[in-house]
Amino acid sequence: MSEKRNNPWGIAIVMLIVGFMGGLLAAPRSQTSASKPLAAIAPENLISRPPLVLNLEMNGQKSQIIGNPLLADPATGAIFVLGAANAKITMVEFSDYLCGFCHLYTTQTFPKIVEQYVKTGKVRYILRNTISVGGDKTVAVASIAACANEQKQFWGFHGLAHASAAQWRDFEVPQLTSSLIAASQKLGFNAQDLTTCVQSNRYAQQYDTEVELSRRFGVTGTPSFVIGGYFFSGALPFEVYQKIFETLGV
């Protein structure tokens, strides 16, 4: 897969998401009892909804954002969750640790969403990993992130990985892994436990499941989002997310 090359901060944005409906409601492939389910069938009120269309005018220019309603719930089986379980809406991000637009979104926009919507109990936020550009490097970083979650430090590592991407993204996997583990010590990680966990490869099946789920939802570029049951592709300006939240009653 290749990373989307549209300018996420351009004002004239038309989001047309196609091709993800086919197979969305197909039954997940068989899993062990320890596996997380891929996706659950959504309530009927999600099935009949029309697309969410936002006509915006910013800096004198008109733009249109379209969110397509989903037929299944991408939050099912989520592991990396931030915010109140009873928040009015859930926002799911599909992300790749080697994705440049993901770095931009995570360092510039995500902190604002957390402060204004997640910490105030309005939005529950979920991160799901996928591969759009990074291949084995993406898998390596995502493995460290899953191990960081054992130390209750997933979100801290997630931010560190994106913020420091310029320092490690050209490394091969062994150097990339050692560099990120060393940097994680500054956040108070137990580096030995992190190393042991990564070497065990015990989250490989979990990661495969995440990637499979993203493909079932038609994710072909990152970041992609499901907000209140509507699918949006690409990193958007914070003001656009504010408008989406407002339209959904948040």
Q: How would you characterize the overall build of this protein?
A:
By secondary structure, the protein is α+β, with helices and mostly antiparallel strands. The chain has a single domain (40-247), classed as 3-Layer(aba) Sandwich (Glutaredoxin), CATH 3.40.30.10. The chain contains 9 helices and 9 strands. The strands form 2 sheets. Strands 2-3-9-8-6-7-5 form a 7-stranded mixed β-sheet. Strands 1-4 form a two-stranded antiparallel ribbon. A hairpin with a 2-residue loop joins strand 8 (224-227) and strand 9 (230-233). Helix 3 (136-150) packs parallel to helix 6 (173-184) and helix 3 (136-150) packs across helix 7. It is globular and about 50 Å long. The two termini are 34 Å apart. The model is unreliable at 1-46 (pLDDT under 50).
Helix and strand arrangement:
Blueprint: E1 40-41, H1 44-47, E2 52-58, E3 61-69, E4 72-73, E5 80-82, E6 89-95, H2 100-118, E7 123-129, H3 136-150, H4 154-163, H5 165-168, H6 173-184, H7 191-200, H8 204-216, E8 224-227, E9 230-233, H9 238-247
Parallel strand pairs: 6-7
Antiparallel strand pairs: 1-4, 2-3, 3-9, 5-7, 6-8, 8-9
Helix pairs in contact: 3-4, 3-6, 3-7
In what range is the share of β-strand residues? 15-25%
On the 0 to 100 scale, the average pLDDT is 82
What's the end-to-end separation, in Å?
A: 34 Å
Structural class: alpha+beta
Summarize the main sheet.
Answer: 7 strands, mixed
Number of strands: 9
CATH class term: Alpha Beta
Helix content: 25-40%
Rg, please?
18 Å
Tally of helical runs: 9
| CATH 4th-level superfamily | Glutaredoxin
Shape: globular
Query: How are the strands ordered across the major sheet?
Result: 2-3-9-8-6-7-5
Tally of separate domains = 1
Give unreliable regions as ranges: 1-46
* SSE succession: EHEEEEEHEHHHHHHEEH
CATH level-3 fold name: Glutaredoxin
